[in-house]
Amino acid sequence: MGDRANICLRFEDGNEIYLYSHGSGSLLPEKLAEALAFGVNRWDDEQYLARIITSRVFADLVDAATGGGLSPYLGDGAGRVLDVDLPNQKVTVRGSDRSFSFRDYPGQHKLIEWSD
User: Fold this and answer.
1) 3-state DSSP call for residue 70?
2) What is the domain count for the chain?
3) 116 domain residue, yes or no
4) Which residues, including other chains, have CB under 8 Å from residue 73's CB and lie 6 or more apart?
5) Is 46 inside any structural domain?
6) CA neighbor of 68 nearest in space, from 27, 109, 96
7) Is residue 103 part of a domain?
8) Crossing angle for the helix pair 28-38 and 46-57, nearest 10 degrees?
9) β-bridge mates for residue 18, sequence order
10) Best label site of 42, 45, 73, 77, fewest CB within 10 Å?
11) Residue 43 lies in a domain
12) Helices and strands in the chain, H and E counts
């Protein structure tokens, strides 16, 4: 079946990159929290922070041919998406009214309930 979910990284120019997890989507809120905490000194640098988030999210997939991917569009897991607004330093749970500043997100990520 899979445990699908996505993180959408939104850039100042309007472009987006989707980080797709096939088998560990329920862990994405925690992985994003860890990445934001680690990258606190790069919150104002979209390129660096995007790389930090991507490498942290996919750290366990480095030697795997499956389990996750990158795309400029949303594929599988459309019901579970974390929108990361890089220039405004905000995380939103797509389809809900849950929104967090980068500063608050690492302490609040456990409150995220995915819709199916």
Assistant:
1) strand
2) 1
3) no
4) 18
5) yes
6) 27
7) yes
8) 140
9) 8, 71
10) 73
11) yes
12) 3, 6
Q: pLDDT tens digit string along 76-89?
A: 999 999 999 999 99
Determine contact, residues 88/9, Cβ cutoff 8 Å. Answer: no
What is the DSSP-derived secondary structure letter of residue 79? T
Asked whether 19 and 53 are in contact (CB, 8 A), the reply is: yes
Rounded to whole angstroms, the Cα distance separating 100 from 103 reads 8
Tokens of 12: 């100042």
Strands 81-85 and 5-10: parallel
Structural domain containing residue 10: 5-111
Per residue in 37-73, pLDDT (tens digit) is 999 999 999 999 999 999 999 998 888 888 899 999 9
Q: What dihedral do alpha carbons 64, 69, 70, 71 form, nearest 10°?
A: 150
Is 73 buried (19+), middle (13-18) or exposed (0-12) by CB count in 10 A? exposed
Over range 93-111, report the average pLDDT.
Answer: 91
| Rounded Cα distance, 35 and 79, in Å | 22
> How large is the greatest C-alpha to C-alpha distance in the chain, in angstroms?
38
